[in-house]
Fold this protein.
Amino acid sequence: MKDYRSILSRCGWIIIIAGVLDIGIMVWCIVNQTSYASSFNIFAVIAGIFLLRGNLRAARLISFFMSFFIAGFFGILVLMPFLLPLDLIITYFKLEPMSFLLMSGLWVLVMVFLVWSYRELTCPLVRAAMDKTQVDYRSFWRKPARGFWFGACVVVILLALVRLITGGSTAEQAKQRAAVQAGPEYRFHVTSLNTSSSGGTKHVRAVVAAYNDREIQTIIVEWSE
């Protein structure tokens, strides 16, 4: 039993450190008015505390979320060419190589952290401790590996929604309006599209990336119909 507790303790400290770093980055981005999508933050700190206390039920739940995030992060990478035009990705790499490499390095670091945590929390010693304390990790809904399926399904659904939203007639209209502002020498991709209705009037707000070989601009277009 001592061995499994040392594994949970080691994972707990690593997850807490990751959560604290994530909180620090989030605060820095808020102060500097930079957008940041945070996935761990305070939840990682709380999860790490449960692991430090040797909670096997928490270990089962956390390993499920680790597999969920592994599938999600990997799926987004694989499907990235379907989410963004390939020439836009190449242009971003040419214009901002350091930022691109930094993001790629961060992605690799996060994936290593997730895979390592999942392997540690599902190792034979931890599973044996769960068997001894009657923590169910074998049934369909409680099996940690089910997170891979859920994560993959979420990515596919997300891809379908993005393609539906950014590939319709409203998105084409947003590109046309962006072209009026930027000029014909750019290519266009809708990165965000929001619609709302009030009093029988439909209001549309879209964020469009206008890009060529020299630059990438962000154009916001709004209209009512």
User: Anything to note?
Assistant: The first helix runs from residue 2 to 31. The beta strands are 187-198, 201-211, 216-224.
